[in-house]
Amino acid sequence: MIVNLLFETGVRRPLSPSVRAVTKAYAAILAVWVLYNVIITVSDIFGMTFIFLAAMLALVFVTLAPTTRSTSIDPGVIDWTLAALSLATGAYFWWNLDTIANRITLFDELTPWEFGMGLLTVLLVLEATRRSVGAGLTFIVLTFIAYNLLGHHLSGEISHGYISLHHFVDTTVYTTDAIYGVPVRVAATYAFLFVLFGTILERAGGGEFFYRVGALVAGRTVGGTAKIAIVSSGAYGMVSGSPVADVVTTGAVTIPAMENAGYRSSVAGGIEVAASTGGSIMPPVMGSVAFIMSEYTGIPYGQIAMAAVIPAILYYLGVFVQVHYMSKKLGMKSLSNAEIPTLVQALKRGELFVVPLTVIVGTLAYGYAATYAAAFGSLAVFLVALLRKETRIDLLKLYDVLSDSTIKVIGVTAACAAAGLVIGGLSMTGLAAKFSALIALASGNSLFISLFISAAVTILLGMGMPTPSVYILAAALVAPVLLKLHVSLLAANMFLLYFSVLSASTPPVAVAAYAAAAIARANPISISVIATRLSVAAAIVPFSFAYSPELLLQGAWFDVAMATGTAIIGVYLVGVATEGYLNAPISGTSRILIGLAGLCFVAPSMLLAAVGTALAVLGFAPTLYPRLMLRRGN
């Protein structure tokens, strides 16, 4: 039983009507409290995170059962007890906020109450992480905790000085560098407000608009329904910043449409997941990881959003190329004229997209914080929705939006708190510096090998953790190596952010794939594998801007244009090689040559461009040469 509890994930409880009503009211009040503290009063962020995390932990234990085998629709005695203990820790920390804020860590000894409440907080975070995120992240956190407390028994470079349990609790709970550090602060501010924005946009009916625009833009091409999914998901991702929200909103329309067009359910789900994953890197909203990156690096969020424009376009180009040739290979057709909306029909309710997007971009451009951009964007959606009866959000809908937004942030909050536990341990033991030294030793200070190892580590982390946790750990463990190799601060962190975002679609922990599986009625792992394959070309984009920061709009416009051009060629060639189809199947040898040609354009130089061109000619020749001879014969 204990082993099952350690390695199982909780399941969402249906809740009885009375408990559901109380939970919704609690969640809605919490949402109002967050809005009030972040937008109106701008209260002490340290004190706010105490209350926010405690309130969210209580919500975890009420809404999520301990295991997948739990049959009770309502929380049991243990669940209510854990929820009450969570609220008790928040109340204690809030009541003693001045004392906690003024004490000197590791100098002022913890009182029995402080130690007890701190240890209880750690245990509650671990259980909440297991229920909401799963065994992968929980196991990693437990491993780091064990290393913190027992690492002094090890020998060699990975050994560290003795850390007592009191030392661990003091540093982990009573500082701003661990549980109550940047990750939870981001969950309580930026992430919460942008989730609210995405939820209110969804309730206003924004998803239908994006589908119609996708049909108008791509419906007449081969595999029209699949390309509609790419266009609509990319457009929705611009204002949602969440792969899961993207899948749920646009996928509810595009996945059945692709199935009706002849795509297998798993393929339809994979296409939607690959398209929706880009929502976290699509400006201007992007995802919670971008806000964490801004907090960690000190780079303004607006600058990060601007830098992400070209990489995001390249990501969607890669997915588009692969879906195009996959659709040709499968013999898919375009939509009929009757299925394609006119320009007027496509732009119906377009104000739900245009106005909020303009408000967000304008707010960021004028230098306002991202929290205000999200708040103003949400207000814009609400006001624009009032113009039409079918989109209008009344008080009951607004109540649902507030409560649903809070529920959606549960997983992010638990993951961020767990990541904070790890970050606190890294600072205590100095493991980050040791890990960086190991990568530098293994790579021989080669930039390409260091980038390859960094990508591999980030992808491996992504197989067991949600996106925010992946980036936080990768930034702590890997980023210092890239910075020493003279990769810019922006490029190094964007590189890690990019591969962290792919964790939303890479198995086995692929949250977007699980959301798509519910719609497609297909295996989430199969969906995840297909989505990962469709994103292969996009994996070269981070290498491109690591070598060429011009892709992040750093440099002269001519250099930016040249770097973008070579990256486009590279993405296209890798996409063709991955699908193995042009106008006919491509042989294995040609696929290898074309793939290598694409990689030559990752680090653009005159020599590599020449080599890439030669390889591409050799790769395409067997496919194109017979067609040229046939034309001459005619």
Structure description:
This protein is mainly α and 634 residues long. It has three domains: 156 residues, no CATH class; 225 residues, no CATH class; 87 residues, no CATH class. The protein is built from 32 helices and no strands. The radius of gyration is 25 Å and the shape is globular.
Per the principal axes of the C-alpha atoms, what is the gross shape? Answer: globular
Structural class based on helices, strands and sheet pairing: mainly alpha
Low-confidence stretches: 1-7
Q: How many runs of DSSP E, i.e. beta strands?
A: 0
The tally of structural domains comes to: 3
Number of helices: 32
Taking the alpha carbons of the first and last residues, their distance comes to 75 Å
Cα Rg: 25 Å
Beta-strand portion reads: under 5%
Percentage of residues in helical conformation: over 70%
Mean pLDDT: 84
Sheet bearing the most strands, described? none
Topology:
Elements: H1 2-7, H2 17-41, H3 45-63, H4 77-95, H5 97-102, H6 112-132, H7 135-150, H8 165-173, H9 182-203, H10 206-218, H11 224-240, H12 243-261, H13 265-277, H14 288-297, H15 301-307, H16 309-330, H17 343-346, H18 351-365, H19 370-385, H20 395-408, H21 410-429, H22 431-443, H23 447-462, H24 467-477, H25 479-484, H26 489-501, H27 511-520, H28 524-534, H29 541-547, H30 557-579, H31 588-600, H32 606-633
Helix pairs in contact: 2-3, 2-9, 2-20, 3-4, 3-21, 4-6, 6-7, 6-8, 6-21, 7-21, 9-14, 9-19, 9-20, 9-21, 10-11, 10-12, 11-12, 11-13, 11-16, 12-13, 12-27, 13-27, 13-28, 14-24, 14-26, 16-30, 18-19, 21-24, 22-23, 23-24, 23-26, 24-26, 26-29, 27-28, 30-31, 31-32
